[in-house]
Amino acid sequence: MFLKKLFSKQKTKVEEPLPVPVIEKHVQHYSKEPYNFETITVDELVKKENTLWDLYTNQADGYLIKNFLSEKEVDTIMSNFDNVLNNDPAYTHVGYTYPAIFAEFSNRISQETEENKVKAIRTYFDKTTKFNDNFKNEFGVDVKTRFESLLKAISGNREIVVADGIDNNGKYPFATVRYLTPEVGLMSVHCGNYFGKTFEDFYKDLTKKVAVENQMSFFIMLQEPEVGGELTLFNFRWKLGQTKVDPREDNEIIQPDGTKMYVENDKEIIKDKIVPKKGDMILFQGGNIWHRVEMVKGNTPRITLGGFIGISIDKTKFYYWS
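Predicted structure:
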């Protein structure tokens, strides 16, 4: 209005300034809609015989599988939860895991001398192999056999195998219990492909047999939190070169050209929240989709059992581990 009055006496027209050209070095492409995350029953899912391949190749995004375990089965597992507390869970700043997850184990052995690393690796995989073999007896439900049966049905007739440990020492855990403590418990924004680049030393042995890029994630809800703890999917996928200043960083993602995006502030970002209930399982493309688990609120911890799935280098089988 001020400019209009100022120039009205001269009867001149105010020209709009020419736009400054913008040189784009990198553009992150967003999906315009939330991911195709289908709520489904086990019986419905087993009819999709190539589900794992579709997830691996990004032809499918994910599934919320209702009542993978019954409430009674989950109650049975939780009634034996002292077996976790009595067997040296790996405590973190957000809660604890049992057995130790790969990131924690990787940190542990990186601090050992070369002489002690061999012993530490053998000790770890002895423990995780026993965890796999004894899970049914210790927790009262044969989750491992049930899970393998489902994976076999949706594998496109590929073999399903728990990944061998480093230097063929035992097996990785088929899944791990993850306990998130209220008011501090969360899983910061991440994707599996980011971890593949961040923990390359850990993946060095696994990548001899598993194509870890585009690995899939799964978890079963054993105990729902009162508030929070949702799985949040962000509407952009992994691009080679993306990183964070630290694995714990929960907002800033650094792009390949050094520019930054902020999941809390970018207006183009859609936050698609998935809320599994007790006994539900989530299976999704966690390697390629940036995601996080929101802060757990209230008084009830969030407890899940989960891990990862990847196709073999020769594409003839699927491995799973945690």
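Summary: The longest helix spans residues 114-139.
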